[in-house]
Every structure is written in structure tokens, then in C-alpha cells.
């Protein structure tokens, strides 16, 4: 992605040359991204921590094969996401997207009234719950796009698919999410979704 | 975008803003600590290609540090597969031969023998005296005393110990010999990415034993190439042709073979001390 600090390539170059301190800087810079991506793919946060850590260690060993000048993030995410998938497959506990909606963090502009804040929180919970009812792949592609804000190349890397297919995957997943929401809305009292999702 | 699409788009962006991921652990510290422990990692990867890297490693390995273990799962013994595996490893240039049918050394024709072509048969106590590392044994399921112990002091440097248990209830015979369980221990280093590179789908699973990397190979005979503590490439094959668990315990590499389930293998591995 454009707009990254210029020294990423320098750091990668130094790390490739064997500078473990340069690599540590890279790890620190991308540990949030790697850990959260692993959360999305692996489910539980313990597995995600394992996966991200192992991914960084393997990426270090794989650095000689990193093509200089190519973007580092998708390359790293490929490795981390593979680790995360391995752990998910190995059938350990999977407490699914270990994500919570923050109680008291208004996302809007001016401070809303307590009632409005509660409604907004409730709406977000419903949306997250609806995502929980999607299949694994749908959930992951939506999370990569919206929660991790990955680029298409990065989404492809994280999901292990071809970049050309990312858009259509996302659009199909959103269609299904919409269907789940419609179903949910029909089941729940209509007042719980004021305006937002119609 | 339609109105509906925009609404959902906005709702998801809004959700994302108020979403709480679990706190990110201090991966930088953990990763750095792990790399610091690894003598190879501390003087890393040089050269643009595999061979360049290996040449550098060969030099470093003279320092007598345990380097790498590489495990290869060969789906079939066909030359095509072997070629494919070798290509994926990028190792053709250095003449490491991979694959092939289960070796004849794996089998003994006479019934009732535990001799797997493993080296000199000794007592457990003797083996402990002759190798340069503490020999670990399982502490579960009555496996504290192996039925046979073999020691090889020459290859790899530091020695190697093979512990063999006779087939019994819970330890089915391997199909080749009377042995039901074989555990091999030597000083060497597993390097996950080597294994990763040859992980034929479904054949290798990445696990942990006591927090250290472990690899579970199921189904087919396997070959291993590893670099020993003097830096030499060596080839090894599994002998029982059953399932295999390879794991790391400090500077030791341990390998467990038998017709065991993954859970049974892990239970035994975790009991080793």
C-alpha cells in the first residue's frame, strides 16, 4: 500500500541482512495487524497469539526469499494467516471472533444522549451477532475488510485466495449478511433496529 | 452503491470503530527472545536464494551448533513426487536425496526381534553414559523402562539414542517388527519453515509439545534430512512406517514413531523427562 513510512523497505533490507534489531522494529510495527488478523482467522486469542508469534519467527527465516521492493504487509500476512489456519484446523478451542462491542465508546460526533448511545451499542451488537451466524469464510472476508481495513492484496494474502476474487467474495458475504439481518430483524421486535438497517 | 449497500457499509464501519480486539501481546519481545536463543537466527539468512543461505549456514555450523532438521513427508515414491518435493525444497543443487520406498533397513525379517538396525544395544544406564545429552523417557502408561535401548555415538555428533518398546495392548505392532513404539533422541534443531515447505496437504500438522514446536506426520513413510551439530546434512528415515511425532525439547530433537493416534503420541511426548 502506498503511504507507508518510507523506512519500511530499509528495515526489511536490514533485517534481510541479518539485523535482528531492525526486525524487532518491524515486528513491533506490525504486531497489532498480525495478531488481529490471526484473531480473525484462528478464532481464539490464545491461538492467535501463537500463530502471530510463530508467523513472525517463520517470516524471519523466510526473509532471504522476500522479494526486495515488494510490499511487506501482504507477504507477512500470508505467513501469519497460514499459521492461524493451521491452528484453526488442528481443532483446538475456537471461541470464534473473540470480539466485543465496546460499551461506552460513542463512535459518533458529538456526545449522544445515554439513550441514543445504548441504542447504538445494541445495534452494533446485533450486527456482530448477525456476523456470527455467517459461515467462516464470509465472516473472515467481512472482518478483513471492515475490522482490519486490509487492502485487496492484503485480504487475498490473509484469506489465501487470488486477489481477483476478493471483491466478489466480499460482495457475496455482504449479501448473506444482509439476509441474516433481515431474518433477525423479522424475529426481533422491530423497535430494536431504529432506522439503521432498513 | 445502493442505499441499502451504503447503510450496511456504514453500519460495519461504525461497528469496527467500537469493536474491541483482545489486547495485542508483546510479540516483539517474544519473537526477539526466540530469535536470540537460536544460534542460526542470530546470524541470519544471507544470500538471495536458498543455496546462498545454506552456504552461509554451513560456515556457521562449524561452530558446532545444532542447526536444522528437515522432515519430508513423501506421499508416494514416484520419481515425479520426489522431484516435486526436491524442487519445493530448493535442494536439488546440493544433492540431498529425498523420498523413495520404505528402506529395507526398516524391516527385520525374523520374527520376535526388536533390532531395527539402530546401532549398539546397551542398557539405558549405559546409553546415558555414552551420549552428551540427558536421555528422556516417558512417564506414562508403564513406559518408564524401554524394552531395548540402542546407542550410536558417531552419528550424529553428540550421539543418538533409540528406545524401543515391544508391541503390547495399547501399542500395536508396526507391521514390520515386534516393536510397538520407537523413540529417537539426538541433538539437532528443527526449523519449522523447512517442514512447512514440504508439508504435503494433510500430511503434516503443526503442534506444540510443552510450548515448543512439534510436527505430526501421519500415514506414510517419511524421510528426514537434518543438519547435525557439526553442520552436516544427514538423512534419516522413520523405521516403523507408522505415524510420527517430531518435537523439540531445548537442544534435543525427539522423534516418536508407532501406530498411535495423535493424542496418544502427544500424551507420551508430554510425559518425557
Task: For this entry, give a set of tags.
A: 198 residues; mainly alpha; Rna Polymerase Sigma Factor, Chain: A; 2 domains; 1% strand; disordered C terminus; B: 273 residues; alpha+beta; 12 strands
CATH superfamily annotation of the largest domain in chain A: RNA polymerase sigma factor, region 2, helix turn helix motif
Tell me the β content of chain B: 15-25%
User: Would you identify the CATH architecture of the largest domain in chain A?
Assistant: Orthogonal Bundle
Strand order of the largest sheet of chain B: 3-4-5-6-12-11-8-7
Whole-number total of structural domains of chain B: 2
SSE string of chain A, helices as H and strands as E: HHHHEHHHH
Instruction: Give the helix/strand class of chain A.
Output: mainly alpha
- How many β-strands of chain A, per DSSP? 1
How many DSSP-defined strands of chain B? 12
Cα(first) to Cα(last) distance of chain B is 63 Å
The main β sheet of chain B shows up as:
8 strands, antiparallel
Largest sheet properties of chain A: none
Helix count of chain A equals 8
Count of individual domains of chain A: 2
Taking Cα atoms only, what radius of gyration of chain A do you get, to the nearest Å? Answer: 19 Å
Categorize the overall geometry of chain A. Answer: elongated
Tell me the Rg of chain B in angstroms: 22 Å
Present the secondary structure layout:
The complex is a heterodimer of chains A (198) and B (273).
Chain A: H1 7-16, H2 20-42, H3 45-62, H4 72-89, E1 100-101, H5 114-132, H6 136-147, H7 152-159, H8 163-187
Helix pairs in contact in A: 1-2, 2-3, 2-4, 3-4, 4-7, 5-8, 6-7, 6-8, 7-8
Chain B: H1 3-17, E1 19-20, H2 27-37, H3 39-42, H4 50-61, E2 69-73, H5 79-89, E3 120-122, H6 124-130, E4 148-152, E5 160-166, E6 179-187, H7 192-197, E7 204-209, E8 212-217, E9 222-227, E10 233-237, E11 243-249, E12 252-258, H8 262-270
Antiparallel strand pairs in B: 2-9, 3-4, 4-5, 5-6, 6-12, 7-8, 8-11, 9-10, 11-12
Amino acid at each position: 500500500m502506498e503511504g507507508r513510512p518510507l523506512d519500511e523497505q530499509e528495515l526489511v533490507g536490514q533485517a534481510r541482512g541479518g539485523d535482528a534489531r531492525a526486525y524487532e522494529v518491524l515486528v513491533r510495527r506490525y504486531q497489532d495487524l498480525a495478531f488481529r488478523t490471526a484473531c480473525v482467522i484462528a478464532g481464539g486469542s490464545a491461538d492467535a497469539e501463537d500463530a502471530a508469534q510463530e508467523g513472525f519467527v517463520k517470516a524471519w527465516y523466510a526473509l532471504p526469499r522476500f522479494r526486495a521492493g515488494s510490499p511487506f504487509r501482504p507477504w507477512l500476512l500470508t505467513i501469519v494467516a497460514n499459521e492461524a489456519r493451521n491452528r484453526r484446523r488442528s481443532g483446538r478451542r475456537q471461541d470464534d471472533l473473540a470480539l466485543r462491542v465496546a460499551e461506552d465508546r460513542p463512535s459518533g460526533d458529538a456526545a449522544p444522549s445515554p439513550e441514543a448511545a445504548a441504542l447504538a451499542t445494541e445495534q452494533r451488537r446485533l450486527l456482530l451477532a448477525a456476523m456470527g451466524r455467517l459461515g467462516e469464510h464470509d465472516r473472515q472476508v467481512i472482518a478483513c475488510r471492515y475490522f482490519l481495513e486490509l487492502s485487496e492484496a492484503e485480504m487475498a494474502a490473509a484469506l489465501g485466495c487470488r486477489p481477483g476474487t476478493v471483491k466478489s467474495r466480499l460482495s457475496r458475504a455482504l449479501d448473506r449478511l444482509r439476509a441474516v439481518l433481515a431474518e433477525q430483524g423479522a424475529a426481533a421486535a422491530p423497535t430494536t433496529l431504529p432506522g439503521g438497517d432498513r | 452503491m445502493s442505499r441499502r449497500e451504503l447503510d450496511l457499509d456504514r453500519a460495519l464501519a461504525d461497528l469496527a470503530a467500537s469493536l474491541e480486539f483482545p489486547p495485542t501481546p508483546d510479540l516483539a519481545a517474544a519473537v526477539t527472545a526466540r530469535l536470540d536463543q537460536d544460534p542460526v537466527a542470530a546470524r541470519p539468512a544471507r544470500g538471495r536464494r536458498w543455496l546462498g543461505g545454506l552456504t552461509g549456514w554451513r560456515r556457521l555450523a562449524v561452530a558446532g551448533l545444532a542447526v536444522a532438521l528437515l522432515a519430508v513427508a513423501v506421499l508416494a515414491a514416484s520419481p515425479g513426487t520426489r522431484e516435486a518435493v526436491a524442487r519445493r525444497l530448493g535442494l536439488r543443487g546440493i544433492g540431498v536425496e529425498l523420498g523413495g520406498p520404505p528402506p529395507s533397513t526398516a524391516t527385520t525379517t525374523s520374527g520376535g526381534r526388536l533390532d531395527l538396525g539402530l546401532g549398539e544395544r546397551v542398557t539405558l544406564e549405559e546409553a546415558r553414559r555414552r551420549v552428551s545429552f540427558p536421555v528422556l523417557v516417558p512417564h506414562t502408561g508403564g513406559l518408564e523402562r524401554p524394552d531395548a535401548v540402542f546407542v550410536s555415538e558417531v552419528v550424529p555428533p553428540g550421539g543418538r539414542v533409540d528406545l524401543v518398546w515391544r508391541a503390547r495392548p495399547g501399542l500395536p505392532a508396526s507391521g514390520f517388527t515386534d516393536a510397538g513404539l520407537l523413540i529417537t533422541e539426538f541433538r539437532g534443531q528443527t526449523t519449522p519453515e523447512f517442514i512447512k515447505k514440504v508439508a504435503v496437504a494433510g500430511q503434516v500438522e503443526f503442534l506444540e509439545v510443552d510450548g515448543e514446536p512439534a510436527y505430526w506426520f501421519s500415514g506414510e513413510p517419511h524421510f528426514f534430512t537434518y543438519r547435525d551439530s557439526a553442520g552436516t546434512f544427514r538423512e534419516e528415515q522413520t523405521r516403523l512406517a507408522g505415524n510420527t511425532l517430531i518435537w523439540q525439547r531445548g537442544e534435543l530433537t525427539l522423534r516418536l514413531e508407532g501406530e498411535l493416534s495423535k493424542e496418544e503420541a502427544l500424551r507420551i511426548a508430554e510425559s518425557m523427562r
